[in-house]
Design a protein that fits this description.
Blueprint (H helix, E strand, L loop, with lengths): L6 E3 L5 E5 L3 H8 L2 H7 L3 E4 L8 H10 L4 E6 L1 H14 L2 E6 L5 H6 L16 E11 L2 E3 L2 E5 H7 L1 H5 L1 H15 L5 E5 L2 E4 L3 E6 L21 E5 L5 H9 L7 E5 L3 E5 L3 E6 L2 E6 L2 E15 L7 H27 L1
Helix pairs in contact: 3-4, 6-8, 8-9, 8-10, 9-10
Length: about 325
């Protein structure tokens, strides 16, 4: 992550780590995250996959019990729930990328291929101040999506293969999706009837119409907005080949973003999790709210390398869109 000033930190005395053993196909188990965290003095709460649990309540109990750091080993959705508690309590937050995609961890510069390396922040770390996004009363660390993107998150295949599902059905969803009629307002700007709207905690880089790339920084104090219209699969295919979507509006704004709909509530993708929110949905950015501890060493690949990987994903999406175009026109 660029543009963020870091400061050295001393080790936490009573760190708490919430571990999702199922996230990322069991990544936490494979890398022995719980055992390694305990060896470093952390108390560990293992999520029971057999029953629903209020993780925010678990985190608040940890704070009441004297925790001086909260962490999560899991995906973006789980990270967001606990990050909210860390921010409101003024405690540092530890991100262990044990999920499938871990976009937040990627943009922090963490090594997603070795999630256990993030635990080094407990003994040799630096602190970053990053922004948090809000959609109504819900925090998001990555993005909140409406319209076709939100419908895609509802697809049962999405949780098993998030990127594969996006690349396989995004063109058809954008071109053919029918759902609530949306209006997006940001400051003086209004976008009527977009088909897909991701609102991100800090803007995506310019060459990423599908939201698959990275954010250059997490401390700009800006929301990123992509509002896209796509009338046919052919237009979607052509737009993805050019690195943009048909009818794309791109905004970077410190203002609240209000998403209105012709329904009392809308399906939403909140950090990759399918939820429903009452309308209108007011999205806002809370600058520098979250104190994130990351290892002093062991950062992931360079920003240039990550940008190249993002372009490859968009190219794959374009190829899929081209096949959809031929099916609809042939």
């Amino acid at each position: 992550m660029t543009g963020n000033t870091s400061r050295p930190v001393s080790g936490a005395r009573r760190p708490w780590l919430i571990v999702n053993p199922r996230s990322g196909g069991g990544k936490a188990r494979r890398f022995r995250i719980a055992e390694r965290a305990r060896a470093l003095g952390a108390r560990v709460f293992l999520i029971d996959p057999s029953r629903p649990q209020d993780l925010a309540a678990v985190a608040r109990r940890a704070v009441d019990d004297g925790a001086d750091l909260l962490g999560v080993a899991g995906g973006d959705g789980t990270q967001a729930l606990v990050a909210e508690v860390a921010a409101e309590s003024g405690l540092p937050f530890l991100v262990v990328p044990a999920g499938t995609r871990n976009h937040f961890a990627m943009d922090l510069g963490l090594d997603r291929g070795d999630p256990a390396a993030a635990l080094e922040a407990l003994t040799d770390g630096v602190e970053l101040r990053v922004d948090l996004g809000w959609a109504g009363e819900r925090v998001f660390v990555n993005n909140v999506s409406f319209g076709a993107y939100a419908a895609l998150v509802q697809d049962p295949a999405y949780r098993e293969d998030k990127i594969g599902t996006i690349l396989r059905i995004l063109p058809e969803f954008l071109a053919l999706h029918q759902g609530p009629e949306l209006v997006v307002r940001a400051g003086a700007r209004t976008v009527d009837r977009p088909d897909a709207v991701p609102v991100s905690n800090n803007p995506y880089q310019v060459g990423d119409p599908a939201g698959l790339d990275r954010r250059a920084r997490l401390d700009s104090g800006l929301l990123g907005v992509l509002a896209a219209r796509a009338q046919t699969p052919a237009e979607t295919a052509a737009g993805l080949r050019r690195g943009q979507l048909h009818g794309l509006t791109r905004l970077e704004t410190p203002d609240d973003v209000v998403v209105q709909a012709d329904t009392p509530e809308v399906p939403v993708g909140l950090d990759g999790e399918a939820v429903t929110l009452p309308t209108p949905v007011r999205c806002r950015i809370s600058p520098g709210t979250l104190r994130v501890w990351v290892p002093r060493r062991g950062q992931e690949a360079s920003p240039a390398g990550r940008r190249a990987a993002g372009r490859t994903l968009v190219q794959r999406a374009a190829a899929r869109a081209e096949r959809v175009r031929h099916r609809h026109t042939g």
